[in-house]
Design goal:
Distance between the termini: 24 Å
Order of helices and strands: HEHEHHHHHH
Number of helices: 8
Strand content: 5-15%
Shape: elongated
Number of strands: 2
């Protein structure tokens, strides 16, 4: 939870500052999924963000809009999907996924070949969302725009 981390950093940095030194400033940076999380955090907390600056790289403003771009699904999403499958879907994670209702055989097959496929077949099911759009509503800052 990013909010808990920011509040913890704020408290920890304040407790180690000498009385004659100004309070340290907290900045944040995010890349890819980290950028999505950071953008959503800033959007949700607005004036109470507790950060003095933030920058995000490659975060989505509207994840559902990505469903319309077939080129991305056939190119860079395929590359990322392969990386997700080989680096994050360990045997232990797959056992838990199956317990949560994920069709592990489908996820590990060539039928699941893009990030959108992984979001639909793995992430949204694993985390109990009512489909990919429900997950994307929760993921993106711009849903209500």
């Amino acid at each position: 939870d990013l909010r808990k981390l920011v509040l913890f950093a704020q408290e920890a940095s304040s407790s180690v500052v000498a009385h004659d030194v100004s309070k340290p400033l907290i900045f944040a940076a995010g890349y890819s999924m980290g950028a999505i999380i950071l953008a959503n955090y800033c959007g949700v907390f607005g004036d109470d963000v507790k950060l003095h600056g933030a920058i995000h790289f490659s975060g989505l403003h509207d994840a559902a809009a990505n469903l319309k771009f077939k080129y991305s699904a056939a190119t860079w999403q395929a590359y990322l999907a392969y990386g997700l499958k080989t680096n994050f879907l360990s045997p232990r994670a797959l056992i838990e996924a199956a317990r949560r209702g994920v069709d592990v055989s489908r996820v590990m097959s060539s039928q699941c070949s893009s990030v959108v496929d992984i979001d639909q077949d793995f992430v949204s099911v694993y985390h109990g969302y009512n489909g990919i759009l429900d997950y994307y509503r929760d993921l993106r800052l711009a849903y209500d725009d």
